[in-house]
């Protein structure tokens, strides 16, 4: 089993709680303070400082998109949904914000600590995944470049298969992705009219 | 005319951890008697006692029974974390409060519990901070198979890593298990620098006996060279361990000093071979603090407790202490003791360590010094 290592240090972290004054808010602030976070409540709007916070708790029952200084689903920090009413429309709205964890209301004496740890981990996983997808998309977008590079290489009298193998060995030699190698080959071809000037004599 | 206040008492008088339970019970009853006999206290406690007999499943029902069928709103009780977690829902439902007089593994701060003994920054962290520089950073972790052992060892793994050490082995025994042969075999093969013992009751006593035998066969395993270190071992269990305990280490908020005259023990009869312990002291302190808060006139509801903790200090066997209103954990001294027969010789004392149940303020460089860079060649 892969173990999340280390004592989770949450001391000094900052959490915004977007919820109207209520016993639930008091319970959350109490738990956050006991855990060692500095907790700031706000309603109805999340101030821009929240962008620099470590966590945001937001109310699903009365929440709306304009409360946030980011577009729905694009929170740059871990966010935790505070769910009271389980009306499908409200759940749908919470889902549109990609909450990293949830806490059911009424909030009692526990739940905040596990929500913090789960939110932090799923946010990190979400971010890692998004980075990976962006990288893969960029690589997919280079398909045409690869075709052009293979064509440039095979124009020197080798077949496609060997040209592709040559591109791969260039990528290995340069220690870059295949797509980057292809970009370089295409750039060289466009600039100098060929990949290997010595053959043009 | 004193105000009569019922008080719940929920300690097992039998079972695996009976010696600890008895120590807590003794401290509780001693403080009840002291409050009742005090002409200056307006409170007379009426004990409402229930005995779960060491069965974890009985704590919740008996706590409910106390809260439903008596006027008691406060319960002094619970030894294991398992039992505390069983009691909490009953407290939340009825608005009751548990005064918990035992060390625990931290990561909890329930409004309905007052944590009157040490949490990890008051036991495990200073204990490893003391032991690792003296004996080495490589530990073997053992414990009884439930939350205390699991969570305490989990934190220990991180602390040992921070001290650039390794956890060489980790083994759990079922509650009450006394066959420790395999554990001893592993320790003998692995040869750690210390053993962190989170076993409880008979398992712990059997382990000390077998380890003493091991040290007779192999001088790597003497207490001077490879000690057993514990966060929950006190005087109340030493008679069950006997001379096998000598030289090993434990951390706690209090170790009894027979040469000092302690006010809270004046007039107390001797208790066989068992000296007063931090369990007894903590249960005693719990009842006295409760009496002190009730003397102001209210019923010490959770909100009144919080206000009282914010504004008062309390005289206890641990000295004058505060209780953090935020987490309801006590500020306590941290002592490290070496076992000498039926008592402890104090080898380190730190006064007034504030509780940090979530280890939010843990700083490895403060505990273990800056990590030395390894030379890479």
TrEMBL record, chain A:
InterPro entries: AmiR_N (IPR049021), ANTAR (IPR005561), CheY-like_superfamily (IPR011006), Sig_transdc_resp-reg_antiterm (IPR008327), WH-like_DNA-bd_sf (IPR036388). Residues 126-186 form the ANTAR domain. Transmembrane segments: none annotated. Pfam families: AmiR_N, ANTAR. This is ANTAR domain-containing protein. It comes from Mesorhizobium retamae.
TrEMBL record, chain B:
Coiled coil: none annotated. InterPro entries: Peripla_BP_I. Pfam families: Peripla_BP_5. SUPFAM superfamilies: Periplasmic binding protein-like I. This is Transporter substrate-binding protein. It comes from Mesorhizobium retamae. The lineage of its organism: Bacteria, Pseudomonadati, Pseudomonadota, Alphaproteobacteria, Hyphomicrobiales.
